[in-house]
Amino acid sequence: LVAVEEVKVSGSTSSHAERVRMSLTSAAKGMTTLHVDHERLERAVDAYPSVRELRVSPDFPHGLTVRVVEHVAAAMAVSDAGEVPVARDGTILRGMPVEGALPTVEVDGALGDERLRDADARSAAAVAGAAPGVLSGRIKEVTKRAGQGLVAELSDGPELIFGAATQLPAKWAAAARVLADPEARGASYIDLRIPSRPAA
Questions:
Q1: Could you give the maximum distance between any two Cα atoms of the chain, in Å?
Q2: DSSP β-bridge partners for residue 86
Q3: φ, ψ for residue 118 (rounded to 5)?
Q4: pLDDT tens sequence across 84-135
Q5: pLDDT given at position 112
Q6: d(C-alpha 52, C-alpha 49), whole Å
Q7: Which residue of 76, 124, 147, 179 lies most exposed, with the fewest beta carbons within 10 A?
Q8: Which among 73, 74, 128 is positioned nearest to 95, based on CA atoms?
Q9: What's the CA gap between 125 and 163, in Å, rounded?
Q10: Whole-angstrom Cα distance, residue 105 to residue 128?
């Protein structure tokens, strides 16, 4: 009486979108709207790294709506094997469409299978992914430097010295405040390692 017969899948935009839809539909057809097996649905899309989470809602008596929440590409990881977009947590997003230019992060050694193996590259991706929208499009690259830690290079702007990949929202907020201050115009760098006391 309550078997799932109609499955609506939305939110999947990667090159694997059709396979994601088919996998979710196939897994859901063995369920009922009273007992939705969320773990089974997640297992059905384990092979697709673009999927970050699933939001599922039954539509009694026979419908099931699955909204796919995808990772957002934060940076372009560059290695000897080529370039690939990555999420802010270092998840490798092969086959994910990318709009516009992304900041680059250099990868030392092999990329990895599902996530970047290089811890410094993962931290650099985290810095890029935490940037507010108004600044994210201005980041050219994020690198790690001796004595400074993680540094974001902006187009038409100063270098942003982050140090460790911690307190990133506070550090980006401090960067935005300093960049908006006319007195900081012409600065070659902004040191954000202590976000409550940025130095330009």
A1: 70
A2: 75, 92
A3: -70, 115
A4: 999 999 999 987 778 788 999 999 998 888 899 999 999 999 999 999 988 9
A5: 87
A6: 7
A7: 147
A8: 73
A9: 14
A10: 9
- The span from the CA of 8 to the CA of 56, in Å, is 10
Q: What is the pTM of this model?
A: 0.80
Whole-number Å distance between alpha carbons of 67 and 177: 36
* End-to-end CA separation in angstroms for the chain: 67
Q: What does the alpha-carbon distance between residue 68 and residue 51 come to, in Å, rounded to a whole number?
A: 7
- Residue 7 falls in which region: left (phi positive, over 0), alpha (psi -120 to 50) or beta: beta
Q: How far apart are CA 28 and CA 77, in angstroms?
A: 35
The CA distance from 178 to 41, in Å, is: 46
3-state secondary structure of 48: coil
d(C-alpha 173, C-alpha 155), whole Å: 18
Condensed to tens digits (0 to 9), the pLDDT of residues 35-45 reads: 999 999 999 99
Residues 136/155, Cβ–Cβ less than 8 Å: no
Q: What are residue 155's phi and psi, to 5 degrees?
A: -80, 135
Distance CA 69, CA 60 (A): 23
Cβ proximity of 61 and 1 under 8 Å: yes
- Three-class secondary structure of residue 163 per DSSP: strand
Rounded Cα distance between 28 and 45, Å, is 12
Distance of CA 178 to the CA centre of its chain: 25
- Contact between residue 150 and residue 160 where contact means Cβ atoms under 8 Å apart: no
